[in-house]
Design brief:
Layout: E1 3-8, E2 13-15, E3 19-27, E4 40-55, E5 89-93, E6 97-105, E7 110-118, E8 127-128, E9 132-143, E10 150-159, H1 186-207, E11 212-218, E12 221-228, E13 232-234, E14 238-244, E15 252-265, E16 278-288, E17 294-300, E18 309-310, E19 314-327, E20 354-366, H2 370-374, E21 382-386
Parallel strand pairs: 2-10, 13-20
Antiparallel strand pairs: 1-3, 1-21, 3-7, 4-5, 4-6, 4-9, 8-9, 9-10, 11-12, 12-14, 14-17, 15-16, 15-19, 18-19, 19-20
Length: 387
């Protein structure tokens, strides 16, 4: 028996172009049955990154696939196919890297190997939607002689920062800040600069603030004003907006604001022409606001959510969806006399004729620092199997 443990050193979230580093350890554990002759032998082990693409047959129509490979692993096959047995289609894969050939482990002995590979720049972001899914995995395959290949899969999450792939690092980084007490590998230094550059680009894009004012009106007149200070956010931020109903001619009884994503299938891949987008609500604020002059809302963008993106098959857009309930006739506020001594109970009107209307405000949501997203990732940084 050999235990195989794979651990992602930096956590399970990466940027495209960033180098993934995984330590893979093979252990021959000591058990009650172990003897001096119970050495274990593996013929080979290899590792590879791949991205699986899943579609909903009711919403997406893809052209016929030319892949005729079988979906089962032959009993004694030595060809490493990391997506063998997986659902969907492998749309992206790095070249496989051989970790070793002919490894022998004595009882209690272990051997570790470091796997380093850049996450492909041309890949899509990780996404689990209603129409499509993009799922990334690191797969380690190993085999005993005359035995079936065993696969260990470590899922991870990928962010795409658009524009980052066009940046060229200067050859001379002598002026860059360095730590004289650390002997940093050149790939690690470049990888760190990539994350720092992405963080700086995201901070620059999302820190710009300018006042956006919108008049809220319906067919009967002005309801109020809506104010928001920016329309570009990172996941993990709060979307904050304010309402001013003090200058409205039409009383607003209630409003709700929903933070939503729209998943659009590109026209050429739609199962039915003109099919609507798939909507998902990530946060919602609802408030009764009759006789309210000013109020606000704050909606958090979950760190687990997928930022805005577009591929050849699907696009994901974010929006704020507003719904308003307004009165058709003026609603007078309750009055209080100066010297009121009796106890009075205020009750709402028994019947009010109302109108309802909605409004959508597009916003843009970008990724965040992958280190931050790793803290709340649903994926574990390590996984293991026994063969």
């Amino acid at each position: 028996m050999i235990e195989v443990v794979a651990k992602l050193l930096r956590g399970p979230v990466f940027l495209t172009g960033e180098v993934m580093e995984c330590v893979i350890t093979f252990i021959n554990p000591i058990t009650a049955r172990s003897t001096s002759a119970s050495s274990e032998m593996l013929a080979w082990a290899s590792a590879q990154i791949h991205c699986q693409f899943h579609t909903s047959e009711s919403r997406v129509a893809l052209p016929p696939s030319e892949d005729t490979k079988h979906d089962v692993q032959a009993e004694n096959e030595t060809v490493f196919v990391p997506n063998r047995g997986e659902r969907g289609k492998c749309i992206l894969a790095t070249p496989p890297k051989i970790l070793f050939c002919d490894l022998q482990l004595d009882p209690g002995e272990s051997k570790s190997y470091s796997y380093c590979e850049p996450v492909p720049l041309d890949g899509p972001p990780s996404f689990r939607g209603q129409s499509v899914k993009y799922v990334y995995k690191l797969t380690i395959g190993c085999q005993r002689v005359n035995s079936a290949i065993k696969l260990l899969r470590v899922p991870f999450r990928v962010f795409v920062v658009y524009g980052l792939e066009d940046y060229q690092f200067p050859p001379d980084e002598a002026v860059a800040p360095t730590n004289p007490f650390l002997d940093e590998d050149e790939n690690i230094k470049k990888d760190t600069r990539l994350v720092d550059l992405a963080t700086e680009m995201l901070m620059t894009s999302t820190s710009r603030r300018s006042l956006h004012l919108y008049n809220i009106t319906n067919m009967r007149g002005k309801v109020g004003k809506f104010c928001i200070f920016k329309t570009i956010y990172k996941i993990g931020e709060d979307v904050v907006g304010t309402f001013d109903f003090s200058e409205g001619d039409i009383p607003c009884l209630q409003f709700s604001v929903s933070l939503q994503t729209e998943e659009h299938v590109q026209e050429e891949y739609q199962r039915k022409p003109g099919q609507p987008a798939s909507l998902s609500t990530h946060a919602r604020h609802q408030e009764s606001c009759l006789h309210t002059a000013k109020t606000h809302f704050s909606l958090p963008i979950p760190l687990s959510a997928t930022p805005s993106f577009i591929t050849t098959v699907v696009s994901l857009k974010w929006r704020l969806h507003f719904e308003f309930v307004t009165a058709r006739d003026p609603v007078e506020p309750p009055t209080v006399l100066e010297n009121q001594s009796e106890i009075i109970t205020w009750t709402g009107a028994g019947k009010i004729d109302v109108d309802t209307f909605s409004w959508d405000l597009p916003i843009k949501v970008l990724p965040t620092n992958p280190v931050l997203a790793s803290y709340v990732s649903q994926f574990a940084s390590s996984n293991s199997i026994t063969i």
